[in-house]
Amino acid sequence: MSDDATAKQNARAPIPGDQSPDQVSTEPAPHSVGAAPHRNLKADLVVVGAGSGGLSAAAGAAMLGLKVVLFEKGEMGGDCLNSGCVPSKALISAAKYAASAREGVDYGIVTGTPVADWQKVQAHIRSAIETIAPVDSQERFEGLGVTVIREHAKFSDPQTINSPSATVKARRIVIATGSRAFIPPVPGLATVNYLTNETIFDIDKLPLHLIILGGGPIGMEMAQAFRRLGSEVTVVEMGRVLASSDEDHAKVAADALRDEGVTLLEGYEAASVSESDGTIVLEAEGPDGKKIVRGSHLLVAAGRQPVLDGLDLEVGDVEYDKRGIKVSQKLRSISNKRVWALGDVAGMGQFTHLAGWHASVLVRRAFFKQGSRADSLPLPAVTYTSPEVAQVGLTEAAAREQFGDKVETSVFAFDENDRAIAEGKTKGECKLVLHKGKLVGASIVGEGAGDIIQLVGYAMSNGMKLTSLTNFISPYPTRTEVVKRAASAHFSGAVFGRPARLLVSLLQRIA
């Protein structure tokens, strides 16, 4: 079956015939006297949450002719479309234009100092959201035959989902409610006007000084973007920034942000936050003692937590913990086999593409009885700073923790890549991580790393040997050649070493 993007593309045309599962009861619910009749429905699949995973699951089931009911209390498209991936990448794109204007002098192009028009930047962000929104819209999914109910939903028993206007008994229930920003228990934080990814794009003016609490992917992406647009930016991170990325490669990205003027306080823990006359004051403690940071805005980007509140999971006999719903690698609840969890709420990672893959696993397992598992493919991740930091499979550190001294790496630097040299974007490298000669992971830092890493991900997902990354013709000049060169570097000793030279010498005499 198709993944998230393919499922959405293939599902554009409505399926002929009425797919609605409505079976309307004329008995109004006690809480809706005077309103429209409360609907009692039956469905093959109920989906709670219209983000990437939920929409893909609903589309896939509807395309197979099943009766589907989809609940969403907020905006269709979920966090990714409305306050996550799409608006953040639109902001990053605008910021890149500002950076290009500043950097042009290095290439012989002289321009004036760029000035960001925040309202026009916001218009660009809204345009990106509005262009994509029809793919995720209620109208589109109703055209597929999905019954869409824009209300909060919760369990009323282990096989029934209830909302103010409908009660649905389902053969299968998918929880795909996503995640929200985690708000750490910092003294005083609750008393100030802090921002999260849900509100940062709606502020009325560009921050004079943006303080960011958290140096993960969201914090680092926003730090660089707002700095490029003209804000002063300080990132406060209790550990090291981009802690889940390869340490060497995270440092390359961190150094790039510092070079652009972002202040990174690594190893500093927020001790208190206060606000006075519109100024945010954050006190942090770290290796050099106490630091006081004053800013106009505070963005909390200290991680995310699954959205589980209000679902009445106990009533549905669905076990969960702080990471999310407890599921097996089959994505089924360990306590209620009717229930499946997809995406962030499944506790296996917080990526839109992972949620799309989870939907594919659901369709394969639930409807085609195939043996697909959530962990059957290596998971890629990209941080969209400049340079980008991309990872698939194990980092070098994780591989050494798992396999010990039997881990090797093979590296090729961007400053030896002709395309990178020609464009003046030479920061970075490709690092392949090997265990007994088998590719178990890769990390790339550099311009376009998120696109380049897909070549390695494809090879790993399809069980290809490392030699497969050397046995193709790479067009010249392209950055993706760094993967081929890194793979080739692993074999250079065998190909050009003394045994090979002796063999070639012998063969030359025979010839």
Automatic annotation (TrEMBL):
Binding residues annotated for NAD(+), in chain numbering: G214, G215, G216, P217, I218, G219, M220, E221, E237, G303
Domain Pyridine nucleotide-disulphide oxidoreductase dimerisation: 380-486
GO MF annotation list: flavin adenine dinucleotide binding; NAD(P)H dehydrogenase (quinone) activity; oxidoreductase activity, acting on a sulfur group of donors, NAD(P) as acceptor
FAD/NAD(P)-binding domain: residues covered: 44-357
Cofactor-binding details, from the entry: Binds 1 FAD per subunit.
Cystine pairs: C80-C85
Chain positions covered by the region annotation Disordered: 1-36
Residues bound to FAD: K89, T177, G178, S179, D344
Pfam family, one: Pyr_redox_dim
Family under the similarity heading: Belongs to the class-I pyridine nucleotide-disulfide oxidoreductase family.
Protein name: FAD-binding protein
Lineage: Bacteria, Pseudomonadati, Pseudomonadota, Alphaproteobacteria, Hyphomonadales
